[in-house]
TrEMBL record:
Its cofactor is Mg(2+). It catalyses: beta-D-fructose 6-phosphate + ATP = beta-D-fructose 1,6-bisphosphate + ADP + H(+). SUPFAM superfamilies: Phosphofructokinase. GO terms for biological process: fructose 6-phosphate metabolic process. Residues 182-483 form the Phosphofructokinase domain. Catalyzes the phosphorylation of D-fructose 6-phosphate to fructose 1,6-bisphosphate by ATP, the first committing step of glycolysis. It comes from Theobroma cacao. One of its GO terms (cellular component) is cytoplasm. This is Phosphofructokinase 5 isoform 2. The keyword Hydrolase does not apply. GO terms for molecular function: 6-phosphofructokinase activity; ATP binding; metal ion binding. Keywords: Allosteric enzyme, ATP-binding, Glycolysis, Kinase, Magnesium, Metal-binding, Nucleotide-binding, Transferase. InterPro entries: ATP_PFK, PFKA, Phosphofructokinase_dom, PKF_sf. It holds the Pfam family PFK.
Length: 510
């Protein structure tokens, strides 16, 4: 059974690691660097330095815990639990009362004498989650900070248990379904699975007995634009929306001031808001929660994290990522065919990934056709004896063709900075895909070797499609558990992702 849990982390940047014994991954990475064995040893030494610098940073962010103190682990856990504290509705309304859950877990099949063996009765059936249930946040005990992928708290990489709340239906809820007006809003860019999450939230709301459900069109803009009306939602409306990509509600970036959004929520009687979006969207959701709390409004703000890049801390996987990797295969395969069919053909594919190369790397590994993969996490040079272009020359001389896959955020130190930001506050990246295409053509012309360079950018193609089966299941889990937390007690389940993130974990039914 998959459940959703949530936790706070002191770290603020996603971590990308590859298995040390993964020869394919190492080959792809090695040719990106062009490192000699000496340089590789230097890189490992630098990596150890970064590990310990991270430890120092972690220490400073944990109230300067003294690791020589024999009780430092307990203090660290206490600090973790303090930062992990999730706002409770009773923090604002001490007199708030709970009600028996309207989520029915009684067995639908009558237990008869002929059909009773092995089946518990309704009295014995335990389907609710206890409020004290916890999920272990990290399941790997790293023995050394030099271990591949090691995430250490102290220089000795000591094991410290960190537990997070287990998600799921509880026996008690703090909102009467008949008094709830729930609103759903999707912000930022498109992502496969948005409709799946919307659908599951609506269906689960109706299971609890909530009838007044609306969709806010085109992100936060829908709260202020008088030409945009609420969209009534019901199971009948959303029944088949998961069969298509995009968002039923539409998306947009930016929006009106937080105070205006909360005022519109008050006017419309919205007391439960589900926000589907990325970093900026969740920062806005957190600001909405703070404003509601300031006004003493009994409102639950629940965030469902969305990013196709798969770079949210504490999450094993984000919805839409598997679909994006699957769709990217078409572009990579086209690049391979173009390169393989041409004399000295070079195919370049640019995929999404502002700060992380998960899509580019996993798409490359899945295709088996990529010779060079460039991602933001690993520095590289285009020119020089160990540069990408020198290795492309080697591939052309030995193989006759080459395929290059780049993440959009790779090589930003090699392109001109724009210093511009989009409506969500994200820095507008330089187009490294076009840059490497131009540099490749220029390089081969200068060395007198003919090269046929083809460039493919399927950026919007891989995100404007319906979710595959794997992402569909993940979206169902996210939609269900986002609702159970909102009805339970939480006045806010949204934080900027460097503080709070959601994580899907496998929990054995036994």
């Amino acid at each position: 059974m998959e459940t959703l849990s949530h936790a706070i982390t002191p770290s603020s940047s996603p971590k990308f690691t590859l298995p040390r014994n993964d020869n394919v991954s190492r080959r792809l990475l090695r040719y990106r660097h062009g490192f000699s064995s000496l340089n590789l040893r230097t890189l490992r030494s630098q990596r150890r330095s970064r590990v310990f610098s991270k430890v120092e940073c972690s220490q400073s962010s944990n109230n300067n815990i003294d690791f020589s103190d024999p009780d430092w682990k307990s203090k660290f856990q206490q600090d973790f639990e303090k930062r992990f504290n999730i706002p409770h509705i009773t923090d604002i309304f001490p007199d708030a009362h709970s009600f028996p859950s309207t989520f029915c877990l009684r067995m639908r099949t009558p237990v008869t004498e002929d059909f009773a063996e092995g089946y518990p009765s309704d009295e014995e059936w335990h389907g609710y989650i206890n409020n004290k249930d916890r999920v272990l946040l990290k399941v790997i005990h790293y023995s050394s900070p030099t271990s591949a992928g090691a995430e250490c708290i102290d220089p000795n990489c000591s094991w410290v248990e960190q537990w997070v709340h287990r998600a799921g239906p509880r026996e008690k809820i703090y909102f009467k379904p008949e008094e709830v007006k729930a609103a759903i809003v999707t912000c930022g860019g498109l992502c496969p699975g948005l409709n799946d999450v919307i659908r599951q939230i609506v269906i689960t709301l109706e299971i609890y007995g909530v009838k007044n459900i609306v969709g806010i069109p085109f992100g936060y803009r829908g709260f202020s634009d008088k030409d945009l009306s609420e969209m009534p939602l019901s199971r009948k409306v959303v029944q088949n929306i998961h069969l298509s990509g995009g968002s039923l509600l539409g998306v947009s970036r930016g929006g009106p001031p937080v105070s205006e959004i909360v005022t519109r929520m008050e006017e419309r009687g919205i007391n439960m808001l589900f926000v589907l979006g990325g970093n900026g969207t969740h920062a806005g959701a957190n600001a909405i929660h703070n404003e509601c709390r300031k006004r003493k409004l009994k409102v639950a703000v629940v965030g469902v994290p969305k990013t196709i890049d798969n770079d949210i801390l504490l999450m094993d996987k984000t919805f839409g990522f598997d679909t994006a990797v699957e769709e990217a295969q078409r572009a990579i395969n086209s690049a391979y065919i173009e390169a393989h069919s041409a004399y000295h053909g070079i195919g370049i594919v640019k995929l999404m990934g502002r700060s992380s190369g998960f899509i580019a790397m996993q798409s490359s590994l899945a295709s088996g056709q990529v010779d060079i993969c460039l991602i933001p996490e690993v520095p590289f040079h285009l020119h020089g004896p160990h540069g990408v272009l020198r290795h492309l020359k080697y591939l052309i001389e030995t193989k006759g063709s080459a395929v290059v896959c780049v993440a959009e955020g790779a090589g930003q130190n090699l392109v001109e900075k724009t210093n511009a930001t989009d409506a969500s506050g994200n820095i507008v990246l330089g187009d490294f895909g076009v840059h490497i295409q131009q540099e490749t053509k220029k390089y081969f012309k200068e060395i007198g070797i003919p090269a046929d360079v083809k460039y493919i950018d399927p950026t919007y193609m891989i995100r404007a499609c319906r979710a595959n089966a794997s992402d569909g299941i993940l979206c169902t889990v996210l939609g269900q558990n986002a609702l159970t937390r909102s009805l339970l007690k939480c006045s806010s389940m949204s934080r900027p992702w460097h503080i709070l993130a959601y994580r899907v974990v496998q929990v054995c039914p036994s």
